Amino acid sequence: MNWEIVIGLEIHAQLSTKSKLFSGAAVGFGAEPNTQTALVDLGMPGSLPVLNKEALRMAVMFGHAVNAEIGMKSVFARKNYFYPDLPKGYQTSQMDDPIVGVGHLDITLEDGTVKRVGITRAHLEEDAGKSLHEDFHGMTGIDLNRSSTPLLEIVSEPDIRSAKEAVAYVKMIHSIVTYLGICDGNMAEGSMRCDVNISLRPKGQQEYGTRTEIKNVNSFRFIEKAIHTEVERQADILEDGGRIIQETRLYDPEKDETRSMRSKEDANDYRYFPCPDLLPVILTQEYVDAIRATLPELPAQKAQRFMSEYKLSEYDANVLSSSRDMANYFEVVTQAAKNPKLSANWVMGELSKLLNQNQIDIIDAPVSAENLGLLLQRIEDNTINGKTAKDVFQAIWDGEGTADEIIENKGLKQVTDTKAIEEMIQTILDANQAQVDQYRAAEPDKQKKMTGFFVGQVMKASQGKANPSLVNPILIKLLKG
Amino acid sequence: MHSQNITLLAQKLRAKEFSSVELTQHFLDRIKQFDTSINSFITITEEKALTAAKIADTRISNGEKNPLIGIPIAHKDLFCTQNTLTTCASKMLNNFVPPYESTVTQRMLDSGSIMLGKTNMDEFAMGSSNENSFFGSVKNPWNLEAVPGGSSGGSAAAVAAGLIVAATGTDTGGSIRQPASFCGITGLKPTYGRVSRFGMIAFASSLDQAGPMARSAEDCAHILNSIAGFDEKDSTSSEAEKEDYTAHLNQPLTGLKIGLPKEYFGDALDQEVAKVTLDAVKEFEKLGATIVDISLPNLNLSIPSYYVIAPSEASSNLSRFDGVRFGHRCDDPKDLLDMYMRSRSEGFGAEVQKRIMVGTYALSEGYYDAYYLKAQKIRRLIKQDFVDALSQVDVIMGPVAPTTAFKLNSKTQDPVAMYLEDIYTLSVNLAGIPAMSIPAGFIDKMPVGLQIMGNYFAEAKLLNVAHQFQQNTDWHTQTPTLAEGV
Amino acid sequence: MSLNKQDVQKIAHLARLSLSDNESEQYQESISSVLTLVEQMQSVNTDGVEPLCNPLEMTQRLREDAVTESNQRDSYLAIAPQSENGLYLVPQVID
């Protein structure tokens, strides 16, 4: 059977506030267990929540970024269930009246087509603590540092039709939240976590099939793999005439399989009701507008500008704008280099290659954008050629100095003196008389191919420093005799 | 010493007729002497009290003016008190010593009052008779075979018996007013949001409110002056300006319009209680007030609405008692589920478990709209009744409870009958308005309270009305004859 | 409105309360009587009535985003039933 894949995503983005959603305890990754907890984060009797202003602002900002309706009245509700990392026995979240309502965003797929994905809602909620399963004489340890950390849960419509689209969507959300500065986007530390809802239906069918939810898939690569695995599992069941059970599943990247989390299914009647310790959050139009005015340029807008302002291809523009840091880096480079295409090639090529190899973030790149810009200037003004530039780049990376210092110290300047080049070429022709004779005897269209040999000899003799744009005309002139 | 009001005691402390240490010792002695039979205290903090009294004496000598300095008081045992056992009268918190202080008790500390101990109550404030306490029922000082009312029964009994000058209570559906009525003392439930709930162990968050319980309106005013006011730790705390609640006590009542809701004088009301109530109203007429007949048409709906909303909120509020971070944990849990189930069913008493289950049911899938949502809609109708009535009159008066204090164990078999007796108090909490109970007479030597309800944030008006009554009557000065405990 | 024994057990499980058979029966009766008491709400027409969650109908106040709490782990853990190495301990959690 020909199956259509239907995917919806729930992304939890941890908001980059200093303090918790409902308390003045610090937010941070990696602190000693239970040292960043206030009474309300521990669910102590009589403790009460007070809402963090900044978390609210960040949520509204996100709403603007995905063209969403902002909830002018939003209400916190309690989601009741028992779990040791949930100290109050309920999670304070939003149900009927979320802070961010219906919106959408556009993603660009690999083939260049643009797809619109609906955002159902985004709401503020508190995170739970962590259960540590190392063995404490057969017991589990509970660390509540993460308890009450602010999360924005972003829920998409089931508009996504493939693993690739899902990844493109998550990448877009990732770049939006990091552009906005409302989430650090660190998936390894759990700052962004994805739950993937997947179902299949025969192509052409209107109704959705039964879905499963895969919890906490925490890297772009795993999202793709988890979806493939789950789609395969569901297709196998359906093709054998079986039925999909609606359930929560966990993706195991080591075994590349999903498995049922039955424990979470146990009587999940969450008994949502408005939290009586918190009051409705009412926003004014002025407040909402003021936040809109502070929105930075977003990835899609930036990509558009890169195309119009720098005449970059859509592909280059999308890659460069996918991360704010990369886009900023590129713009600094191109300001110095005055050649956007060359700058784009270097940022996406040589720089990205080394960053990937060394697993370094662009913000920590050993070659500053200014330095790369200077290096590219030297290509532009013919001081060095592209090949030499790669060596210089490696030397800058290794901390040997600026482009100019390295060119100077290593004597890498191109030879641009025509007299010197002419002498060099003449010496080479004299040493290769046989090839010169062949050349002169050949048909004109064959001659073109034969120049390659002489150019190679010149470059070798000049240690790559001869300016190719000067070498060619002189060589041809002398060959013709 | 033990039957004098705060104003008088404050004068005598300053005149050095006695010291705060002596006053404190006097009350501690009375507690030892009489409380074995009344059982109004769960914890007595003798040493801390005497240490605090010494400091209070210094503050008085230094000329500090706050009338509460050096005055012995007690707190209902649901206010968290740092380093002092706080049980909520539950086995669940039998070992709970909070590392933090509630805003109410902190403010009372700051004002210089001396805490002598923590008073008994219905477990987690759920009850109207104080028979639901892990630490045993409290006896009414006027008749040791009768209940003191609840849930702030310990506070009411201790004040009535002269074991303490004043106490704090909390009122979710009448828990200050009804025991005040049963024990013949003065109690005030302030406007919702007037007093911070921080550090108060929650029963039903949208209804709970702390207030003073004392021998007179004037004493209540002194305590309200200390505990009222905005608290940034409580999102539901009101930023409305607080007043000096003693400032208007002496205003004459000429022209005061008193509303008498006909629904408060229906069949459920004991005829003698009705007579006492109406006699008290006549007293107000003598003081220059006029009477207006009014109606609160949805009064009867306050019972169902309350008994859905309060248990629903409670079911969620009490989920944190899970044996993980504080409180009771069962012995040798065989797994996580067993730990939850046994810790909670061992830790909570029957009434608490019942209300948790009622609330769990009311919020559960498929029932939410019919129960919780419906109850919240009815709540608005009830509020609107008060808003309409209070646009015609200054205060509303009526009985606090249909009867005087009933006999211990007489109603435990039929809890729903006991719920029905809350009919005159519940609606006030649903609407969030302030209300008082003041002593207004006796039936068969048992006190009867008059309820005075007012507009939002009109505590000063209520206290003024109550004080004027108390200037012209002596019901509030009557004290029970105590038998020494065995 | 009256509940059967399974209803009571389901609610008790949701609320994490363990009831003996005998208790289940008692609660079945007492909870049913409360539900009967609250039944009279259904006779009231509340169409178009906005639910009232907070009597004052105030709106949420906001806190500045500042760290105001210091580490109180020792005093908080001191009242825990069981803790070790700065962690609360519970019977093993199986995901």
Automatic annotation (TrEMBL), chain A:
InterPro entries: Asn/Gln-tRNA_amidoTrfase_suB/E, Asn/Gln-tRNA_Trfase_suB/E_cat, Asn/Gln_amidotransferase, Asn/Gln_tRNA_amidoTrase-B-like, GatB, GatB_C_1, GatB_Yqey_C_2, Gln-tRNA_amidoTrfase_suB_CS. Its EC number is 6.3.5.-. This is Aspartyl/glutamyl-tRNA(Asn/Gln) amidotransferase subunit B. It comes from Marinomonas phaeophyticola. Belongs to the GatB/GatE family. GatB subfamily. Heterotrimer of A, B and C subunits. Residues 328-479 form the Asn/Gln amidotransferase domain. SUPFAM superfamilies: GatB/YqeY motif, Glutamine synthetase/guanido kinase. HAMAP family: GatB (MF_00121). Allows the formation of correctly charged Asn-tRNA(Asn) or Gln-tRNA(Gln) through the transamidation of misacylated Asp-tRNA(Asn) or Glu-tRNA(Gln) in organisms which lack either or both of asparaginyl-tRNA or glutaminyl-tRNA synthetases. The reaction takes place in the presence of glutamine and ATP through an activated phospho-Asp-tRNA(Asn) or phospho-Glu-tRNA(Gln). It comes from the Bacteria. The lineage of its organism: Bacteria, Pseudomonadati, Pseudomonadota, Gammaproteobacteria, Oceanospirillales. It catalyses: L-aspartyl-tRNA(Asn) + L-glutamine + ATP + H2O = L-asparaginyl-tRNA(Asn) + L-glutamate + ADP + phosphate + 2 H(+); L-glutamyl-tRNA(Gln) + L-glutamine + ATP + H2O = L-glutaminyl-tRNA(Gln) + L-glutamate + ADP + phosphate + H(+). The keyword Transcription does not apply. Keywords: ATP-binding, Ligase, Nucleotide-binding, Protein biosynthesis. SMART domains: GatB_Yqey. Transmembrane segments: none annotated. The keyword Glycoprotein does not apply. It holds the Pfam family GatB_Yqey.
UniProtKB/TrEMBL annotation, chain B:
Transmembrane segments: none annotated. Keywords: ATP-binding, Ligase, Nucleotide-binding, Protein biosynthesis. The active site is at K76, S151, S175. The keyword Protein biosynthesis applies. It is an enzyme of class 6 (ligase). Its EC number is 6.3.5.7. Residues 22-463 form the Amidase domain. The keyword ATP-binding applies. It catalyses: L-glutamyl-tRNA(Gln) + L-glutamine + ATP + H2O = L-glutaminyl-tRNA(Gln) + L-glutamate + ADP + phosphate + H(+). Belongs to the amidase family. GatA subfamily. Heterotrimer of A, B and C subunits. Allows the formation of correctly charged Gln-tRNA(Gln) through the transamidation of misacylated Glu-tRNA(Gln) in organisms which lack glutaminyl-tRNA synthetase. The reaction takes place in the presence of glutamine and ATP through an activated gamma-phospho-Glu-tRNA(Gln). This is Glutamyl-tRNA(Gln) amidotransferase subunit A. It comes from Marinomonas phaeophyticola.
Automatic annotation (TrEMBL), chain C:
Its EC number is 6.3.5.-. SUPFAM superfamilies: Glu-tRNAGln amidotransferase C subunit. InterPro entries: Asp/Glu-ADT_sf_sub_c, GatC. Gene3D superfamilies: Glu-tRNAGln amidotransferase C subunit, N-terminal domain. Keywords: ATP-binding, Ligase, Nucleotide-binding, Protein biosynthesis. It is an enzyme of class 6 (ligase). It catalyses: L-glutamyl-tRNA(Gln) + L-glutamine + ATP + H2O = L-glutaminyl-tRNA(Gln) + L-glutamate + ADP + phosphate + H(+); L-aspartyl-tRNA(Asn) + L-glutamine + ATP + H2O = L-asparaginyl-tRNA(Asn) + L-glutamate + ADP + phosphate + 2 H(+). Belongs to the GatC family. Allows the formation of correctly charged Asn-tRNA(Asn) or Gln-tRNA(Gln) through the transamidation of misacylated Asp-tRNA(Asn) or Glu-tRNA(Gln) in organisms which lack either or both of asparaginyl-tRNA or glutaminyl-tRNA synthetases. The reaction takes place in the presence of glutamine and ATP through an activated phospho-Asp-tRNA(Asn) or phospho-Glu-tRNA(Gln). Heterotrimer of A, B and C subunits. This is Aspartyl/glutamyl-tRNA(Asn/Gln) amidotransferase subunit C. It comes from Marinomonas phaeophyticola. The lineage of its organism: Bacteria, Pseudomonadati, Pseudomonadota, Gammaproteobacteria, Oceanospirillales. The gene is gatC.
